[in-house]
User: Which sequence fits this backbone?
């Protein structure tokens, strides 16, 4: 790959302004997607892009390019300068980040970075061959380098890798799901993922409908991670608080959730997908969001922290500029484990309820109340007498996440990293570290299609 | 750029490809967003590269390279072939026949959007925001965008096409909050506004400033509105919500690749089966849905798709009966029906997928007032707020930003937090009126997600207000 920090320096040198910042994103990745055990959509990506932010008289403009020639960088500088010159002064802007010491993190694995196209095809085949029925999903691995240099003295650079196996085992009337993610491909076992998915699928034939109502429920980490991710979008984000969209607005210090629940955002945890700094170059901080059920904090970037005033400072959660309108992003959610030895123990604790493997197509109905709707899929079951009983069709839920988290029956002892990136645009892998959870309240509002194809 | 495509095809042939296509793309995108009377972002992005798709021993390969050079084209072709070689299981993968052709296409543009100064674009956003300011409105925002894309496509089957596409769009939004209630109103559409393949004249035609006072007033008024009651009732949908309904419950389930399971692990499959074609009753006789990649101004308008298949109009639902799918050459060959024509990729770094182009609910007859006039008791729902549908596209739930009570043929009080839910074919079977061509409006969205790695497609939908009987409204958590 191109040396990212050197490229950022070249972009800075080409620019003119009161302050300038260049961010380089380099990606080499492959995603081998398969359906009916046939690799049908492989995507191998090589790209390097430079984003330049220029500040002139308190006005800010951005431009980006992947033309890395001197001429390309000159055009980049001109466009960023024009953007800044066209904008009115922004009184909220308090300058670009200065250089700070960055945390030392893990998150880069040479074996993962060096996987060739043929390796990616072979690893996808390993997952396919381990299944006893048709499988759908992908293997992906990527090496990403991010570098930021600024005229204010900031120099930050990070290499990261990520790899994911995702397997849906499905036939007519049956489907089961599993996935595994790590920054080191050697930590992943395609056979185990395929076997988990196929074993789950085998239990889903003959699914029945369920009367709408409020049920006790066990959510596997796949489902819990997605629900939290959607809740975090409005509620665990400083902009959501400023705009009063967050459920936590005006409620900090209050016991809003079950005391068994503690959630942090921790990009420094080597069990996740570690990051040393955000897209403004601010060092990542571990942020306690919920502690023993009490709302403690949200994540901030430089602008929202400045707008909030008081003691708020950036926690290192600035998103890419394309997502800036949504505010700082909690992209390393980490739920503290509980005491249940297994998901089976959570099923016993629930006794009478439902078991949810995975969610589908979530949408925020009411951000302030944290109401989210979506479907379950690929492994929904009834729990009776503390055991997994008959399979259920895909269920529509419309649930206030704070209510789901207000009465936690139990949490698993084992925490799993769940991939949350759909790999749109430039590669920015992220995930949620969480255990399975048992809740006393999960509201089902309808039934949908059955499992399987 | 054609020369680079040819380099890629030659390299693919040398590496053993029995078929290859190459797309060399230059794209420039400009986006201006303002919020609370400050500029949130001004971005001017350019991206270029070449994407090469190959078939080697029956296996697909796709690789891309940012370098628009002979080396970049060859490297992408060789990596694509290396993958396909490694992935090949020796299966046959026939493609629907396609005649060699060459052609050019340009979006008709009256006013070049990149000729409009950034300062003027910012000023438009700030003026629209200013007009939304209202008591209880906490956040105002506005955005405009422009994109110019030059694409050369060449296939080993003898298709060569050069296409230049221009997109413009914009939108405004007001968020009101008071006493723990949060409400939002948007125009012309929620989330990403609305875009078209057109010049700056499209943004001017939206009238963002003109509509802004209403948007601000309605956001504030919603804070004091009653919640939409629950129960089964008659629903009239405005064209903006209806285009979301068409997109989710007709567009996606009629993508033929979903029927064959290629999206099963992510976006999902479809409740339809291939042999439903020509016989499945999708909805009432008033339901007519057309895929039209020739619609002037549509975001899915082109001369050739990303496999080189010429654009052509396809009826998807006629008089309530399923009559077509959106297809690729591969899925069309597998079905034994159709020729492809709906393969689209999100830029040079993604493999083409079966995507919607412009998918329209055809107009019926009469006016909006006629639709409302025949409702004794119901609700009129405007502007999408939330959306969710199951993996086979059967069970859906939508929320809208605003609702209005309908009593004895007239619109009544404003209602908030409206949702409705249903099962796709039953819902469309309950369609009993679609307003006429005068009420037909087209919207363009830039956020249709599909594929792994994810791809955002730009698609347009047109619809006139329509009426549905006996719909479940008001789902509560």
Assistant:
């Amino acid at each position: 790959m191109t040396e990212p920090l050197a490229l950022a320096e070249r972009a800075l040198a080409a620019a003119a302004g009161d302050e300038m910042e260049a961010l380089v994103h380099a990606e080499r990745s492959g995603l081998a997607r398969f359906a009916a055990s046939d690799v049908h959509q492989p995507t191998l990506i090589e790209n390097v892009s430079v984003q330049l932010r220029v500040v002139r008289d308190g006005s800010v403009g951005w431009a980006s390019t992947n033309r890395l020639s001197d001429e390309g960088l000159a055009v980049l500088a001109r466009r960023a300068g024009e953007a800044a010159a066209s904008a009115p002064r922004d009184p909220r802007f308090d300058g670009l980040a200065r250089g700070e010491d960055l945390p030392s993190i893990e998150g880069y694995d040479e074996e993962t970075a060096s996987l060739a196209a043929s390796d990616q095809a072979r690893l996808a085949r390993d997952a396919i061959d381990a299944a006893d029925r048709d499988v759908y999903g992908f293997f992906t691995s990527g090496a990403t380098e991010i570098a930021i240099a600024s005229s204010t003295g900031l120099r930050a650079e990070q290499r990261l890798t990520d790899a994911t196996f995702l397997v849906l085992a499905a036939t007519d009337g049956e489907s089961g799901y599993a996935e595994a993610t790590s920054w080191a491909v050697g930590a992943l076992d395609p056979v185990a993922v395929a076997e988990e998915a196929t074993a789950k699928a085998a239990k889903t034939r003959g699914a029945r409908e369920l009367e709408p109502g409020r049920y006790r429920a066990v959510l596997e980490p796949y489902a819990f991670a997605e629900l939290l991710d959607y809740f975090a979008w409005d509620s665990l984000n400083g902009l959501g608080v400023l705009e009063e969209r967050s459920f936590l607005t005006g409620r900090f210090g209050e016991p809003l959730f079950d005391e068994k629940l503690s959630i942090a955002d921790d990009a420094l945890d080597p069990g996740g997908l570690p990051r040393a700094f955000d897209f403004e170059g601010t060092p990542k901080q571990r942020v306690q969001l919920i502690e023993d059920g009490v709302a403690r904090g949200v994540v901030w970037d430089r602008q929202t922290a400045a707008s909030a005033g008081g003691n708020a400072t950036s926690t290192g959660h600035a998103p890419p500029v394309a997502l800036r309108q949504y505010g700082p992003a909690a992209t390393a959610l980490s739920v503290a484990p509980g005491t249940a030895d297994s998901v089976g123990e959570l099923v016993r604790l629930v006794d009478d309820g439902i078991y949810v493997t995975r969610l589908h197509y979530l949408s925020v109905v009411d951000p302030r109340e944290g109401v989210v709707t979506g479907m379950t899929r690929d492994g929904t079951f009834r729990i009776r007498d503390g055991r997994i009983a008959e399979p259920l069709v895909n269920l529509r839920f419309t649930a206030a996440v704070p209510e789901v988290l207000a009465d936690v029956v139990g949490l698993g002892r084992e925490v799993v990293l769940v991939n949350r990136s759909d790999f749109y645009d430039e590669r920015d892998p992220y995930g949620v570290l969480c255990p399975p959870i048992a809740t006393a309240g999960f509201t089902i509002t309808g039934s949908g299609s059955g499992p399987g194809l | 750029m054609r020369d680079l495509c040819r380099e890629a095809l030659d390299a693919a042939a040398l590496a053993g490809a029995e078929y290859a296509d190459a797309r060399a793309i230059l794209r420039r995108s400009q986006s201006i967003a303002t919020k609370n009377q400050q500029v949130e972002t001004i971005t001017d992005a350019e991206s270029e590269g070449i994407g090469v798709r190959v078939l080697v021993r029956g296996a697909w390969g796709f690789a891309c390279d940012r370098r628009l050079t002979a080396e970049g084209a060859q490297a992408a072709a060789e990596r694509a072939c290396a993958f396909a070689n490694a992935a090949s299981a020796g299966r046959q993968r026939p493609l629907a026949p396609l005649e060699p052709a060459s052609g050019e296409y340009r979006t008709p543009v009256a006013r070049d959007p990149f000729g409009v100064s950034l300062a003027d674009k910012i000023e438009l956003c700030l003026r629209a925001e200013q007009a939304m300011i209202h008591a209880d409105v906490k956040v105002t925002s506005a955005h405009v965008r422009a994109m110019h894309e030059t694409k050369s496509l060449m296939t080993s089957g003898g298709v060569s096409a050069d296409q230049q596409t221009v997109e413009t769009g914009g939108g405004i939004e007001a968020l009101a909050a008071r006493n723990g209630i949060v409400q939002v109103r948007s125009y012309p559409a929620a989330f990403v506004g609305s875009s078209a393949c057109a010049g700056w004249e499209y943004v001017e035609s939206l009238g963002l400033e003109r509509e802004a006072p209403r948007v601000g007033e309605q956001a504030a008024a919603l804070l004091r509105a009653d919640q939409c009651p629950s129960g089964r009732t008659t629903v009239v949908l405005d064209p903006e919500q209806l285009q979301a309904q068409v997109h989710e419950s007709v567009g996606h389930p009629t993508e033929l690749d979903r029927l064959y399971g290629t999206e099963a692990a992510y976006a999902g499959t479809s409740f339809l089966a291939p042999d439903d074609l020509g016989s499945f009753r999708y909805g009432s006789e008033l339901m007519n849905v057309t895929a039209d990649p020739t619609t002037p101004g549509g975001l899915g308008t082109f001369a050739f798709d990303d496999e080189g298949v010429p654009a052509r109009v396809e009826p998807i639902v006629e008089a309530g009966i399923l009559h077509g799918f959106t297809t690729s050459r591969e899925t069309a060959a597998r079905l034994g029906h159709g020729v492809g024509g709906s393969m689209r990729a999100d830029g040079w770094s993604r493999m083409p997928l079966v995507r919607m182009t412009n998918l329209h609910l055809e107009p019926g007859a009469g006016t909006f007032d006629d639709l409302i006039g025949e409702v004794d008791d119901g609700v009129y729902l405007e502007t999408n707020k939330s959306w969710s549908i199951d993996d086979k596209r059967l069970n859906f739930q939508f929320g809208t930003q605003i609702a209005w009570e309908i009593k004895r043929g007239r619109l009544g009080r404003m209602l908030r937090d409206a949702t409705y839910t249903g099962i796709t074919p039953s819902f469309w079977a309950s369609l009993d009126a679609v307003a006429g061509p005068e009420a037909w409006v087209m919207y363009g969205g830039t956020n249709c997600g599909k594929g792994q790695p994810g791809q955002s497609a730009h698609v347009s939908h047109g619809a006139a207000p329509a009426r549905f009987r006996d719909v479940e409204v008001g789902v509560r958590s």
